[in-house]
């Protein structure tokens, strides 16, 4: 409790009035594209959206996408060794990976198979937009929690520019990047960049991997052609990521030495190729068009499978009055995962069937403005079809007995939203939003399903306020989420583990608050999120939904000591929670923690910058994720822990021209 009071005291102390006005106002005027492809100022959006800028990522010393998202109210990041970070928006728990749509420059990369967020170097990021609870009409199936749109740096309209960087850190970590850009003629902009990363990692290796290093390489090529009242942009990314991991620890092992080798060891090796293109054109004063298309391909060299997905979205914006318009859109996704290796079924080799996913959707969004009042309505109809296979094992020998081809067809997925936004002053707005969001079971869910299959339906109600007063910006909201047919992973039975639907409802009630105070040389940040997730009916009626912390808090400060010299400190707190699969609340809550990150940088006038920092300054021991097992064998039912990194130190140099 003392830790909670310390952080709440920081919030109170941060609320003093000072004199800078420009930064809070600019924060509200910035344009976002996740809630409307054509761009909308934050203040004119009747939705909860947070923007993390490249400047903030740099000042906080974030090294990965998940670190950049840390501290955003309503956002919790879960990590298990060897897997991509899972972004949990508003208490989804263990299924968060399938309840959040991940976009890269507006192209969905989460769907048929998981996408590793950390293959995107933070040096390539212009900003990250986090839309919570209100993305279902634009992005459809899976946007139960919301949308995370990672927007990378576009070519600059400058003759020649570039830079390079080198960083070293704990666990033999080396990061490097180089980029070069320029323009050809008056209209054609180009840039290319490379980022590399090698590390031994915090956890000890198993003997067979003792001398191996994690390795990540990423190459980016971008081109943009400027049109009269529009542009054509094409981006290509190639990345390779090899990550050695070791598994979970028991409580005794975790307390003794969280770095030790866990319950299993292995590695992942993925190769990604992503191509996307965008065309936007203002036809006249009343008509805008936007066309987005892309292709994502992943080769999993360890499991020897290949995943590819095409995506296309044409949109038209028709302006019929001042600040009033209707948007018509259509999107199509076609994905396939091919398994290269044969499988042994009852002693006979056979080819594993491929997984397939297709979806078609049409949607309409309307925004009407009457004085200071803005009203939005949206509707989407989507058809999703899966083809996959489930595996049947012998309960005595655990040998594979049968592969069953399966299919699922969800043809009437209707999502809709309604919003009211009132601009009560030159800087402030208050908004209400209601969204009906849907999620169908994914191929990963369906492969181990139990019972009837139903579509999850979330009804999301939110009331929020944004404003700027003198030196302070504020964004706050309260929300109520009612979930029916919640999809979850049930491990409470020691003899079976299955995905299934809750037979009752889950209710989430919460509130979020973000404050930023801009002094002459000092910026203070306070961010708080509170959520109460309760199961309201069924066999777990009255229990708290597993894997969700009630409190998350962040207090930070950035201080420009002298010209070019900047210091930053951030404190993060997360409260206790039940293990991610402990839906009967069998075990006690645990794993609350406070961590501190600090960094310092000095930028010379000649383009050179020196920087350094410490993550987890006080070497706090905690877990990225806590799950459980109900097995009656060995140690019996118990919680298992996936340790987070301990203290790490880094230093680097950058040069830009």
From TrEMBL:
Bilayer disposition of the protein: Multi-pass membrane protein
CDD domains per record: ligand_gated_channel (cd01347)
Keyword Cell inner membrane tagged: no
Domain TonB-dependent receptor plug: 42-147
SUPFAM superfamilies cross-referenced by the UniProt entry: Porins (SSF56935)
Signal peptide: 1-20
Compartments it resides in: Cell outer membrane
Protein's recorded name: TonB-dependent receptor
């Amino acid at each position: 409790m003392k830790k909670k009071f310390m952080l709440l005291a920081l919030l109170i102390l941060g609320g003093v009035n000072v004199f800078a006005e420009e930064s809070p106002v600019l924060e509200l005027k910035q344009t976002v594209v996740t809630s409307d492809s054509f761009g909308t100022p934050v203040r004119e959006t009747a939705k909860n959206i947070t923007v993390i800028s490249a400047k903030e990522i740099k000042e906080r010393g974030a090294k990965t996408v998940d670190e950049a998202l840390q501290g955003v109210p309503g956002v919790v990041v879960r990590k298990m060794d060897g897997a991509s970070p899972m972004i949990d928006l508003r208490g989804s728990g263990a299924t968060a990976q399938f309840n959040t749509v991940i976009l890269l420059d507006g192209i969905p990369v989460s769907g048929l198979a998981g996408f590793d967020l950390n293959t995107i170097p933070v040096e390539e990021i212009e900003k990250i937009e986090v839309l919570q609870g209100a993305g279902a009409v634009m992005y459809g199936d899976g946007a139960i929690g919301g949308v995370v749109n990672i927007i990378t740096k576009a070519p600059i309209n400058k003759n020649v520019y570039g830079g390079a960087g080198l960083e070293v850190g704990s666990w033999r970590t080396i990061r490097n990047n180089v980029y070069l850009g320029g323009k050809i003629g008056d209209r054609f902009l180009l840039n290319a960049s490379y980022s590399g990363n090698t590390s031994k990692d915090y956890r000890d290796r198993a003997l067979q991997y003792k001398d191996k290093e994690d390795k990540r390489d990423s190459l980016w090529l971008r081109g943009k052609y400027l049109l009269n009242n529009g542009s054509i942009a094409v981006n290509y990314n190639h990345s390779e990521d090899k990550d050695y991991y070791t598994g979970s620890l028991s409580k005794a092992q975790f307390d003794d030495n969280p770095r030790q080798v866990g319950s299993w060891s292995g590695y992942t090796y993925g190769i990604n190729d992503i191509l996307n293109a965008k065309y936007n054109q203002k036809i006249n004063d009343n008509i805008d068009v936007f066309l987005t298309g892309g292709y994502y391909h992943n080769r999993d060299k360890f499991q020897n499978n290949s995943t590819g997905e095409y995506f296309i979205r044409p949109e038209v914006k028709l302006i019929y009055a001042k600040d009033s318009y209707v948007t018509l859109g259509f999107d199509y996704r076609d994905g396939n995962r091919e398994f290269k290796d044969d499988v042994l079924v009852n002693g006979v080799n056979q080819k594993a069937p491929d997984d397939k996913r297709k979806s078609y959707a049409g949607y309409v969004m309307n925004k009407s403005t009457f004085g200071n009042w803005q009203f939005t309505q949206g509707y989407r109809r989507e058809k999703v079809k899966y083809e996959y296979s489930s595996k049947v094992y012998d309960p005595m020998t655990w040998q594979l007995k049968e592969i069953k081809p399966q299919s699922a067809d969800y043809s009437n997925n209707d999502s809709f939203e309604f919003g009211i936004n009132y601009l009560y002053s030159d800087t402030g707005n208050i908004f209400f939003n209601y969204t009906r969001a849907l999620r169908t079971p994914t191929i990963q869910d369906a492969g181990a399903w139990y019972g009837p299959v139903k579509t999850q339906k979330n009804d999301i109600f939110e009331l929020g306020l944004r404003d700027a007063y003198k030196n302070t910006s504020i964004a706050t909201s309260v929300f109520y989420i009612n979930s029916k047919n919640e999809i979850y992973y049930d491990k409470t039975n020691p003899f079976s583990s299955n995905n299934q639907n809750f037979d009752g409802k889950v209710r989430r009630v919460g509130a979020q608050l973000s404050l930023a105070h801009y002094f002459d040389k000092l910026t203070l940040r306070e961010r708080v999120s509170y959520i109460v997730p309760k199961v309201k009916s069924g066999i777990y009626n009255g229990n708290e939904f597993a894997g969700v912390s009630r409190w998350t808090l962040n207090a930070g400060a950035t201080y420009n000591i002298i010209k070019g010299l900047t210091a930053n400190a951030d404190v993060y707190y997360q409260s206790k929670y039940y293990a991610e699969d402990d839906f009967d609340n069998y075990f006690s809550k645990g794993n609350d923690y406070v961590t501190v990150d600090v960094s310092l940088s000095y930028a010379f006038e000649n383009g050179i910058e020196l920087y350094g920092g410490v993550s987890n300054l006080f070497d706090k021991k905690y877990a990225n994720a806590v799950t459980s097992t109900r097995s009656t064998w060995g140690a019996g039912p118990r919680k298992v822990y996936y340790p987070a990194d301990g203290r790490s130190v880094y230093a680097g140099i950058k040069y830009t021209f």
